[in-house]
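Entry:
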Amino acid sequence: MKLVPISSAGGAGICARLTVPVLAFGGILMAVTQTVVVPLLPDLPRLTGSSPGAVSWLVTATLLAGAVLTPVLGRAGDMYGKRRVLLAALGLMTVGSTLCALTSDIRVLIAARALQGAAAAVVPLSISILRDELPPERTGSAVALMSSTVGIGAALGLPLAALIVQYANWHAMFWATSALGAIGLALAWWTVRESPVRSPGRFDTWGALGLAVGLVCLLLAVSQGGQWGWGSAPVLGLLAGALVVLSVWCGQQLRSGQPLVDLRLAAGRRVALPHVAALLAGFAFYANSLVTAQLVQAPVAAGYGLGLSIVATGLCLLPNGVIMLVLSPVSARVSTAYGARVTLAVGTAVMALGYVVRIVDSRHLWVILLGAAVVSMGTTFAYSALPTLILRAVPLAQTASASGVNVLMRTIGQSLCSAAVAAVLVRHTTVLDGVHVPTLPAYQLAFAMAGIIALAACAVALAIPSDPSPDGTERTAGRPGPLQETALEGRS
């Protein structure tokens, strides 16, 4: 059966042509809402009358909710309709932004930020919709753009928030994201049509609860380990709880006739290795913006810092988002020509090269920007290849759930990176005017760590089996693989 291009299906016209940019806008908006709170963190204890520890939950709550809901909403999308669940995720994000704009109560803010975390499912749901609705020759570039929106939005969110916070009331930032969320929701309702591809059955409620508890225990331990102490009873207890709960969950998933996550499919090399690569690439990607932001804001008296403001720091990160936007179609063409695993390997190798530049010179702004740009180039290629590898390895009916797990692995990688970088920078400090400031070797060690992880991701990419076509060559991203062909035959 040949897929019908959305430009000629059903209600053709402008709505069909806007589907890809509207979904990409939703992905960018998701990343923006996750990062806009960062410039506010130093001032929020005073603004909300709460402690710094309570304020940190504005980041943690979004992380936990996103990690838990991404695979759950992905599975729900496969079963009940991807458009329906996509609209629900965008709606929860918009409601969360509005609540943040209306209150200064830290408890309500934390709950609202958890609602915003539901938007993490937008990217895997959108990728699944694109796979279902677009013809094969357009899928590669669209999926590459959709996957890159995470980096694009993160690069745009910080300068946007910094400008609003500097020149307006801090609630205006959330009003802005509320308005953007409402626009994104309305556009998605108008342009995106419901996919006919469904995975009928009964939703695995126990599996969703088990995964939620296990992930909360794991990510809470990782995100709070530096503050609570890695050897403290709460952190060790959470890690032990995560191990026990996730072990029981795996057993339950293997026994279930309709599991939340098909572990047997996920255990195959063509699915498991891209998930491992996603975790490693997420780690390597996050160090770029996380460490760069701290490095350029370091005081000049430290001997290496530039003493930049939050706004200037955001502008330094802005080119990274532009790079990802421009290079996403290029990475799709590379995947079409040489295969997605080659694109992933090249991308992670380029990321490692960028960190070499960061290690060699982290004192001059132009070199810092060059190194960050090289890492962003590699990230674009890696992130665009990951969903393509997943799409080629799973049936149509499991696209959203499998893509959700891949995005989850990236999230876990970013969480591990945040914890590892914090541990390195806290351990290697010098005293400056009575304040402990990270040393330059500490930043270089963080870059070296990220570069090594990127090389590990490259090795994993090279180990991913190719998808041979009947003539013995590797299939390209523009054509369906064996599992997709089987699913398409079922649709006809």
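The CA atoms of residues 99 and 470 lie 55 Å apart.
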